[in-house]
Amino acid sequence: MNPTLRTALAVLFPLLLLLPGCSGAQSDRIEIVVTTNILGDMTRVLAGDAANVTVLMPPGADPHQFAISAQQAARIDRAGLLVHNGLGLEEGVQRHVTAAEDAGVPALSVGELVGPLPYRDSDRPDPHFWTDPARARRAAESIGARLLELPGIDTAVVRANTERYLAELDALDAWMTERFAALATERRRLVTNHHVFGYLAQRFGFEVIGAIVPGGAALASPSASDLAELAGAVRAAGVPAIFADSSQPDRLARVLAEQAGVNVKVIALHTESLTAPGGGAATYLEMMRANTESIVTGLGSR
Fold first, then answer.
1. 222-243: per-residue pLDDT in tens?
2. DSSP codes joined into one string, 202-220
3. Which long-range contacts (C-beta less than 8 Å, at least 24 apart) are formed by 257-266?
4. Of 256, 132, 113, 284, whose CA–CA distance to 194 is shortest?
5. How far apart are CA 212 and CA 200, in angstroms?
6. Contact partners, residue 35, CB within 8 Å, separation at least 6
7. Which residues lie across from 31 on neighbouring strands?
8. Per-residue model confidence (pLDDT) at position 19
9. Please, what is the angle between helix 284-300 and helix 37-47, to 10°?
10. Is the four-CA dihedral 142, 146, 148, 154 of positive or negative sign?
């Protein structure tokens, strides 16, 4: 045999032997499917390399409306664990979640475990618990505890990741408390395009003046009288900024600002979805820090 060929085979053969083992190690990991990208970020951090985590909701999507492919639906059916909000958030995939649970797929309904609040002027549960970092901590604790119950998972990895992430959430909570303390009480008034910040308001002493979109529906349309009434409330409260979700059109927010008849800014926040890397809110921690700075800056002006 040619000496050069013999040398090449001697190098390649051990590598070829390793390939099936690497593939098997990857496929041996438990498969976790997560509906929304905020919960998906938490689950990926906690699981680390101890599991394969598939997130169904793409960056920048509307959690109420995003749909999934047949291939993604099949992933749900095969999941070793399905993690979902559980408070009616993922309307576009709810039937798949319900069918999987009925079929016996192990599932974790995170929102039900964090002490949910009702929507303002409603008895329906508000699914946007992550705007309160203390409840986000409870969510992470619940996910971490459920991961530890999965057969064959590396519990040492999950425990270490959970401990580290909970410390980061505690630091986030302390930082947000400090930043919001810079706002005088009369400045802590929120007007948004959608009812998202009920939990943040309760946690940090904000008053929600109103939301452009009525109720908890993301795509409902306000009437002319609704906008006129809210514009009057904005003028009366002296609110300097209206906050709109960065992934949604802000046309109605700008109409409201014009109707208010005062110098009201429209400021984008990342409220219901993470962004792609580099978009300003690629992780839950990054999203909350960016939103906090925007709120403090927007309400502290004038």
1. 666 666 777 777 777 778 888 8
2. HHHT-EEEEESS-TT-SS-
3. 259/227, 259/228, 259/231, 260/231, 260/234, 260/235, 261/231, 261/235, 262/234, 262/235, 262/238, 263/302, 264/234, 264/239, 264/240, 265/240, 265/241, 265/298, 265/301, 266/241, 266/242
4. 256
5. 18
6. 56, 57, 63, 82, 83, 84, 85, 90, 93, 97
7. 52
8. 45
9. 130
10. negative
List all residues 6 or more positions away from 49 whose beta carbon is below 8 Å from its beta carbon. Answer: 157
Nearest alpha-carbon partner for 83 in 105, 64, 61: 105
- Condensed to tens digits (0 to 9), the pLDDT of residues 86-139 reads 999 999 999 999 999 999 999 999 999 999 999 987 889 999 999 999 999 999
- pTM recorded for the entire structure: 0.85
Residues 6+ apart with CB under 8 A from 68: 56, 76, 92, 93, 96
Say which residue, 171 or 212, is predicted with more confidence. Answer: 171
Q: What is the DSSP string of 86-119?
A: -SS--GGGHHHHHHHHHTT--EEEGGGGS---BP
Q: Average pLDDT, stretch 189-209? A: 91
**Location of structure tokens 């004038």:** 302
How many residues are given for the chain?
302
- Token pair of 234, please? 């904005």
User: Residue 48: which of 30, 62, 65 has the closest Cα?
Assistant: 30
Write out the two tokens for 276: 């792609």
Q: How far is CA 290 from the centre of its chain?
A: 14
Mean pLDDT, rounded, for 270-274: 94
Q: What is the pLDDT of residues 39-68, one digit of tens each?
A: 999 999 999 999 999 999 999 999 998 999
Which residue matches tokens 């929600």? Answer: 208
